[in-house]
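Troubleshooting: if your tokenizer reports a length mismatch, compare your output against this known-good record of 96 residues.
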Amino acid sequence: MQNNKLTQTDAEGRTTHWSYDNLGRVTSRTLPMGQFETFEYDVSGNRIAHTDFKGQRTDTEYDINNRPILQTIAGTITKSWTYDAVGQVLSADQDG
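Known-good structure output:
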């Protein structure tokens, strides 16, 4: 069993909850007032999706070296990266 934090209660009695997958990665966090965020991962452990407390989803794609190459935020803003042969960022662009 992993020692992941499941809950945290502040001095005013408000509790935040966390959920994890079988590899110990956070899959959700719920705040005391019910707001929640979720996380999804690929088989390499890269975070491929995050839905924030406002319901805005960010999707990220990675290359075979686990470097981010494309990120789409709320379906409208797109960020992209290219890399050279040694893994240094050649370009970083944003649309939207």
